[in-house]
Design brief:
This protein is mostly helical and about 130 residues long. The chain has 5 helices and 2 strands, in the order αββαααα. The chain has a two-stranded antiparallel sheet. A hairpin with a 5-residue loop joins strand 1 and strand 2. Helix 4 runs antiparallel to helix 5. The longest helix has 19 residues. The chain is globular and about 35 Å long. The N and C termini lie far apart (about 30 Å). The relative contact order is 0.16.
């Protein structure tokens, strides 16, 4: 369940869970939208950000960086990036809406280096459920 964005943004921290109760984001509520944008999801200006985030978790939003995106990719992406979000949260004490750009560059570089470990070929396909 997600509240309206006006309520969502009042939370200090949020824990967003994907299918099976696995973490896809845990950190400042105000940083959640920025986190998913940095992963390659584009937020329409007219979209409620809380609904948009839920749609990402459900696999209904395309990713321009990962054309074969499936929601199961959010788990390893979070595992790769949790330390960046948590570090920023400790430093900013909830005062900033985004992570420092150096941390984001580091995260993107690490994602590119580790891409083989989280390749879509290792995840079940939402597009082709017959694929193993």
């Amino acid at each position: 369940h997600q509240p309206r964005w006006s309520l969502f943004s009042l939370f200090d921290d949020v824990l967003l869970l994907g299918k099976g109760g696995r973490t896809v984001y845990s950190g400042p509520a105000k940083g959640a939208q920025r986190y998913f944008q940095q992963l390659g999801f584009e937020a329409p200006k007219s979209e409620n950000p809380a609904d948009w985030i839920m749609d990402i978790i459900a696999g209904e939003v395309p990713n321009y960086r990962i054309p074969q995106f499936v929601p199961e990719m959010l788990y390893p992406l979070w595992e790769l990036n949790a330390h960046v979000v948590q570090k920023s949260s400790r430093i900013d004490q909830g005062q900033s809406q985004s992570l420092p750009s150096d941390d984001w560059r580091s995260m993107v570089k690490k994602l590119d280096e580790e891409w083989g470990l989280i390749c879509y070929k290792q995840a079940p396909s939402a597009v082709d459920p017959k694929r193993e």
